[in-house]
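Hi V.,

You were right to ask for the full record rather than a summary. Here it is.
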Amino acid sequence: MVKNIFLKTLLVFSIILTIGPVLLVGIQSLSSRWMWPNLLPQHFGMRAWRAVLEDPSLLQALGNSMVITAAVVMLTMVISMPAARALAFEQFKGKTLIETTLMLPLLIPLLFIVMGLHLTMIRFNLADTLSGVILVHLLPCVPYAIRILRTGYERVGTKWYEQATVLGASRQKQFWTITVPMLMPSIRSAIVLTVVITLSQYALTAIIGGGIITTLPIIYYPYFSSADQPIMAAFTLLFAVLPIFFWFVIELVCKSVTTMIRQP
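Predicted structure:
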C-alpha cells in the first residue's frame, strides 16, 4: 500500500516536472504583460507568435534544419554500425589507436577541431555550403553513436551470427533477422541522440556555414539574447517541436521496420 502511494506520488511529481515548465513557457509566449507578483499575465496576445512566424528566414532555417538532421542521421548510422561491429567483435592491430581516434571529438573541444577543419573545407569548397555543415555535424554525432551501438553488439554477442552462418544465412539476411531486431533499442537510442545533437549545434553551423546556411539555432540565439521574454518563449516552443516531430518519425519507421521483419 505504502509502495503504491509512493509510486503514484513519484509519477505525479514527474509529470509536474515535465509538463510544468512547458506550460509555463506556453503561457509566457501568449502574454503581453506579466508583472511580479501576479500568478497569471494581466494581458494575453499573439504578438510574440506573430513576430516569430513572420521572420523571413524562419522557413529556410526550418527546411535546412530538417535536411541537415535527416542527412546526418543517415550518414551517422551508415558509418557507425560497421565501425561499432568491428570494434565489438574483431581483434586487429591498432584497434586501441582507432578507438581513441574515434573518441577524440568527445575529449577535445569541438571548436578547436573545427577551426582547423574550416581551412580544409575552404580548400575543398565545402565552407558555406549545406554539405559542409552536414559533414561537420558528424563530428559530435558519430562517436556517441559508435559507443551506443558497440554496447548493443557486445550485448547480442557473436553466437547468433555464428549459428546463422552455420545455417547458411547471408550477411544481408543476418543483418535483417539478427542485427536490426536485436539492436533496435540501441539503434533507436543512437538516432534520437543524433537528432538532439545535430539540432542543437550553433557554433559548428555558424563557423562552417559562415552565416549563409541558416538553421533554427542560428536564428534562435538572437531571440534568446533579447529581453523580450514572450518572443523567447514562443521561439523556444517552436524550437522544441522539431525534435518531437523527428521522434515521432523515428518511432514510426522503427515500428514499420520491425513489423516488416516479423512478417513471414
